[in-house]
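Record type: monomer structure entry
Structure origin: computed from sequence
Chain ID: A
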Amino acid sequence: MADKSDRCRAAYAAGTAGHQSHLAIEFSQVDCPRLFAGPGLPGVTIPQSATLACVTQRSLIYSLQYAGIERGVYIQEETMFDLTGQVAVITGSSRGIGRSIAENMARAGARVVVSSRKAEACDKVVALIREGGGEAIAVPCNVSDATQLKNLIDKTVEAWGRLDILVCNAAVNPYFGPMETMPEEAYDKIMNCNVKSTFLLSRMAGPLMAQGGGGSIIIVSSIGGNQGSNTLAVYGLSKAADSSLVKSLAIEWGPRGIRANCIAPGLIKTDMSRALWENPKLLKNVEEGTPVRRIGQPDDIGGVAVFLASKAAAYLTGQTLVVDGGITIKEPA
């Protein structure tokens, strides 16, 4: 097998037929810098997509010098929001908020496990991430089934050997109406999917994160967890439980390098909230009552999740970040 510098030279040579102006060689180790050749190197065009993992800084510089490039090499340290080399499991990530989180974490360099109940839907998201140059696998999972939760974690470790980020996003709300007429089965379904699954997954993920030196647990809650409702009361109850859970997770796992935080979105345009944003009167009231004068989009949450998983949030734990366009800060009408 060729040594590292030979493989680096091969990657450089393979890239000379490209049409972009620089080469990015990404390191698999999270704390390694990224190095770039160019731009502005005469007669050399290398595609940005050319990558080579597991090389050292010295072998890269050597290979560039061997190829006749001794100038224009500089070191760019990883950014505070870089997730390169980390492994992220995101439940409910075949659409909506979960999909945005998966796509944005992949863009930030994480290796992503896309998970939801339907394999075909997961595969589509994985294909799109890979087309964009990211790394992803699909592991279908019904989060209400403890056996499937264990399989999700096992398949992640089998594929990538570690777990650094857990995003508990999957949630259901099978009932819209007053508690007085709510079926007990609907209550159980909400609490099992939205709360119990998060408790179980966090308990499974924690020891693996600790073995790897730490990690980040992110739970997608809702502003409904801090409000009363005559139509979404039990859903709000489950989301209030999420905000409480992260406080205890932060205390229990913090000494072992693991942070835990919630994101509490406002009204986001997803399939789950369709009944709300497809109601013209309700939508108008929300938009007019929100300082930014719009409802949220999934990417409004995806970026926040990347922040919480990254070094930029290294001193942030046990908190619930409200991401609602400002609707909950208004004084009562």
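Annotation 1: The two ends are 71 Å apart (CA to CA).
Annotation 2: Residues 12 and 104 are 28 Å apart (CA to CA).
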